[in-house]
Write a structure and sequence with these properties.
Shape of chain A: globular
Oligomer: homodimer
Radius of gyration of chain A: 22 Å
Largest interface: A-B, 36 and 36 residues
Strand content of chain A: under 5%
Number of strands of chain A: 3
Strand order of the largest sheet of chain A: 1-3-2
Order of helices and strands of chain A: HHHHHHHHHEEEHHHHHHHHHHHHH
Largest sheet of chain A: 3 strands, mixed
Distance between the termini of chain A: 61 Å
Number of helices of chain A: 22
Helix content of chain A: 55-70%
Chain lengths: ~525, ~525
Amino acid sequence: MSHYQKLVQHAQKIANFNHLAAISGWDQAAVMPNGGNEARSKAMAELSVLIHQLNTEPQLSDWFHEAEQESLSPIEKSSLREMKQRWQQATILPKDLVEAKSLAGSKCEHAWRTQRKQNDWNGYAQNWQEVVNLSQQEAQIRADSLGTTPYDAMLALYEPGTSSQSLDVVFENVKTWLPNLVDRVIEKQDKESVIYPKGTFARSQQKALGLKAMQFLQFDFNHGRLDESVHPFCGGVPTDVRITTRYDENDLMQSLMGTIHETGHARYEQGLPTSLAGLPVGEARSMGIHESQSLFFEMQLGRSPEFINHLSAMARAEFQAEDQPAFSADNFRKLYTRVEKGFIRVDADELTYPAHVILRYEIERDLMNGNISYKDVPELWDQKMQSYLGLSTKDNYQNGCMQDIHWTDGKRILISNSQPNENKGKRLKKHNYRGGCMQDIHWCDGSFGYFPSYTLGAMYAAQFMAAMKKTVDVDGALRNGDLTPIFTWLSDNIWSKGSLLTTDELVKQATGEILNPAYFKQHLKERYL
Amino acid sequence: MSHYQKLVQHAQKIANFNHLAAISGWDQAAVMPNGGNEARSKAMAELSVLIHQLNTEPQLSDWFHEAEQESLSPIEKSSLREMKQRWQQATILPKDLVEAKSLAGSKCEHAWRTQRKQNDWNGYAQNWQEVVNLSQQEAQIRADSLGTTPYDAMLALYEPGTSSQSLDVVFENVKTWLPNLVDRVIEKQDKESVIYPKGTFARSQQKALGLKAMQFLQFDFNHGRLDESVHPFCGGVPTDVRITTRYDENDLMQSLMGTIHETGHARYEQGLPTSLAGLPVGEARSMGIHESQSLFFEMQLGRSPEFINHLSAMARAEFQAEDQPAFSADNFRKLYTRVEKGFIRVDADELTYPAHVILRYEIERDLMNGNISYKDVPELWDQKMQSYLGLSTKDNYQNGCMQDIHWTDGKRILISNSQPNENKGKRLKKHNYRGGCMQDIHWCDGSFGYFPSYTLGAMYAAQFMAAMKKTVDVDGALRNGDLTPIFTWLSDNIWSKGSLLTTDELVKQATGEILNPAYFKQHLKERYL
């Protein structure tokens, strides 16, 4: 057996255990009774330790060395590259640092739960200082290995191949037009009237409606499920993708669009190449590309006028609301494109969202590169919020730099974090990208480098749509209600590629060019102006 | 760290992985979409291999040797005994034999699915011959180690401490009165009229009713759930017990009593000593004792007139059937105690069930001890069915010795059987006793020695009830609807003991004597005559 083959077998073994981690994590979040949590956490921590051991077995070093001398096909070369990258990320950090960071992160997060309510920046900063310090050490070690800046080394955990140099260019561009665009749109929307559907919308009916939307989006129910959890996420494995939503019986709109978003993640997973199952090269490309798929579904498709026509018709039928103005397609469209400036990122709309991300990107970049201190963060936050969204967070830490809630606050987490594990916040989060929607990665536990993925996803989605429209009659497909041509394009160009290509290669092959924020700008202007 | 402590840590590690196996197994049976099965089976097989490796690590031999020299408390001594027994059972068989038996079992079972429909004994016998042969080899190896007969060595996998010598005495006794009793009861019931509830009983209402019954039986919903599966079972872990049922919208009665049966298994699991969690000594005592708890709930409590009063009231309320004679307590009682002679064990009622078990016991005992050949089975089956139930299975193999369906026939199994693993059908089935209800252990894959557990359970249950009544006002508790005193007795005498005592010790401490079938006979006569 060649060394490459040995590595393949080893990766498939790890994938089997990751499968069980994903299902146990879904169970913990979606169906496990509270009393089961302690024993479950222990069991999942045991599995984490095992997976870590497998990822860092000593013989792997030799195997990679030997495999690189072997004669490999192009696919095998890509596969080896992805396996090696995962291995390097798993082995590069000293165990002490991993453990210290894990402890500091847990301590910081635990106290933050109380401190945030009390707006207690000073208390928070005492713990957070250590998290930042240890994260800087991590970033430096990774940077030395990769030959990049410290921040870029962290970024590579989520967006391999993307540099802050290119992000700077992209985000600086966005900053030149976004604040003004937001103001113009809000001014325009001030004159519009919207009607919020009122009443009680039974969970069972909301669920039925969500399932209809998923069917419309060709979710494969033979390889996945819809369930409920406190914080919606997409989990499971490609052959069995578990998406969740939550229902607010007073709010029809939120859960429905949340389900559509998760369906985008799910179809990417379901569409990954089965011939590469169990190998890193068969997994989703990156956090940003994963988010591009959920946002393609939610923003590009889900909020398009044609799609909203279908959605409003489904909702009218489900709730027998044919004659209610709140359920009209026009009102649905207004509701789903309503723009508002706010403090909280996770509540932000499509248009203001990039401002939240760029703010965080700039701060975490400078923090990791040692250009600013943790002490500077609240003031910078306030300045940037004022500059990008015209809101002040002075002395308002809880809605400023302390806001970023771990969506998994409380007992339910998808990935066990209770064991020292350098995968924490890194490859496992890639592997469980699907966990990305659940775990709002934040600075509290030192997960620096993740935030750009959200806006990269939105931009890629817009670029994919523009490229798709060159060969696919998207509006026609949406109008006649058979989205197959759209999904064929996504499957051919994105899903079936797994991680065979780098992100830049993937985007270039699909659209003819690498990331270009002009498509995003164009999309926003067309939709909102 | 003492060697005993090392063994404890090792056992807890295995328990963590068993936890994940149990939850993944539940998921596979209860919620997994079909398309997820192949990857899941692989992942679970990987986990089986790992658990097997852990159970048979070479250093354990030394550790057991050393630990036996250490100064241990009585509880630790029991714990060591149980750990050692598990280890011995896991290591005793040569790997070749385990693999050969697993292959032969799979082959036999696979072909049986077709052969049973075709009543093809000759085809079946060709494969089964090998299963019997390999099982005899297994029994001999185990017997040599334990110093017992081959059959008793197999029995020890499910009912440690029980010998065929004592079973012979017990079952011979039953045979002297059961056939006659069955005839008398059928004659008596012929004169009664019963009304089968007719109509469509919505799943949601059946589920609500089942949940009410579970609440009445004080199932701890903080440590467990009720779900649906094709074949009802009790799975999960003691801190998170998953029971399942299935609903037939044309049949109200079956699912309800099935839920009560599984609730008995579940409360045993939920009541196991938390201080011994993760150790073999903290697990359920045996298959027979586990079945005694489900049958205590189903037969001793569930079919008692007082309980049926509550049940019929709950059903009347749920289905708004106050005035329907089919829903009267008297009719419910008649329905739930209806006796009928039939070919199929899993469909048998309380009274005829032991006949099915004794027949199988006698055949498997003689088969394992080499006193009969596999070829003799159909004729013996026919003879014994005629003798015990007055039914002939001559040339009717599919309802005779080929009947024993794997309840997991089809894609959904609780425990992955796809890997050679000497735990298969043995300790895993103890650990996942809860799997016992799902997997109708049968001869097709060489699981000889399991059948007596069913009737032992029924007998223990009757004996426990008789003992309980000496100190607990069972009828009063049932009448006033607070069953706490009943559960306190079960918890004190059975559940909280885990595997600290041997079965005989457990039963003697609880009831003042070891197994005595007189209580079972008395119970049946009182209920049915």
